[in-house]
Amino acid sequence: MELNIKKQFAMAQMIDFFVDTNILIYIMEKHPNPIVSQISQFSLGISVITEIELFGKKNITQSEINAIRNLLKDCEIIKLNNNVKELAISIKQKCSIELADAIIAATAKSLNLPLATADAGLKKLNDANIVILKM
C-alpha cells in the first residue's frame, strides 16, 4: 500500500463525516437547517474536488475567498490517489452522475466514511454510504 494511502487512512480515523460541496456552502451561508449547524460541529473531510469547486466560483470575491479559507482550516482535504481514481471510474460506469460527484463519492468510499450531501441525485449510488440531507 502506498505511503500516501496509509496517511489518508490515518486521517480518515479523525474524520466524522465526509461532506459534499453543497454542505460546506450551506455551512458558510449559515443555512437555518439545524442539521447543517450540527454537522459543522463534527470533524469534516472533503475531497480536493470540493476545494476546487469552492475556489473556482466565477467572479469570486476576496471576502468569499477568506470565508472559504477560514472554513477549510477545520477540514481534512483528501487528495486524489489511485484507489479513488479506480472507484470513481467504477461509479461512472454504473451511474450517470457528474465526474466531480463521482470523485467525491469515491473519495468518501475509499476512506469508508459516510458522505453527507444535499444532492438527492447521489441516492442512485446503492453501494455507497450516502446521507442525503433534505434542505
Describe the structure.
This protein is of the alpha/beta class and 135 residues long. The chain has a single domain (3-132), classed as 5'-nuclease (Rossmann fold, 3-Layer(aba) Sandwich), CATH 3.40.50.1010. 50% of the residues lie in helices and 13% in strands. The chain has seven helices and five strands, in the order αβααβααβααββ. The protein has helices at 3-12, 21-28, 34-39, 48-55, 62-72, 82-94, 99-110; strands at residues 17-19, 44-47, 75-78, 115-117, 130-132. It has a five-stranded parallel β-sheet.
Instruction: Tally the structural domains.
Output: 1
Q: Could you name the CATH topology?
A: Rossmann fold
Described by its quaternary structure, the protein is: single chain
Sequence stretches where pLDDT stays below 50 over 5 or more residues: none
**Shape verdict:** globular
Question: What is the strand arrangement across the widest sheet?
Answer: 3-2-1-4-5
Residues in helices, as a percent range:
40-55%
Name given to the CATH homologous superfamily: 5'-nuclease
Which CATH C-level class is it? Alpha Beta
Name the descriptors.
135 residues; Rossmann fold; five-stranded parallel sheet; 5 strands
Give a short summary of the structure:
The protein has 135 residues and is α/β, with parallel strands linked by helices.
Which SSEs are present, and which pair or pack?
Elements: H1 3-12, E1 17-19, H2 21-28, H3 34-39, E2 44-47, H4 48-55, H5 62-72, E3 75-78, H6 82-94, H7 99-110, E4 115-117, E5 130-132
Helix pairs in contact: 6-7
